Amino acid sequence: MHTRAFITWVAIFPMAAQGMYLLGIVAPEWPPVLRAFVLTLVVVPTAVYFAVPRLLMVQGRVSRAVRRRRLRRVASLQSRV
């Protein structure tokens, strides 16, 4: 799976779901296109500038930790030989 696409989806989906719910309560009479427009005005910049960069940073840290752990395991196996 493409990691960046998945991380973007993980960032956007919860915000979009919550936004749809809130807009349904606040503005039930609005046409769906207007609701989608207002929702994307909030969700897209929030995801692009805040959520996705933070999730990518976490993913990078996890990836580096896994890589280090694998290298240590390989080194310990090689030292036994």
Description:
With 81 residues, the protein is an all-alpha fold. The protein has one domain (3-80). Helices cover 90% and strands 0% of the residues. The chain contains two helices and no strands. Helix 1 runs antiparallel to helix 2 (32-80). The chain is rod-shaped.
Q: Tell me the number of strands.
A: 0
Shape: rod-shaped
Number of alpha- plus pi-helical segments: 2
Count of distinct structural domains: 1
Task: Give the biggest beta sheet.
Answer: none
Radius of gyration: 20 Å
Order of helices and strands: HH
State the end-to-end distance: 36 Å
The overall pLDDT, averaged over residues, is 93
Structural class: mainly alpha
Helix content class:
over 70%
Extract low-pLDDT stretches. Answer: none
- How much of the sequence lies in strands comes to under 5%
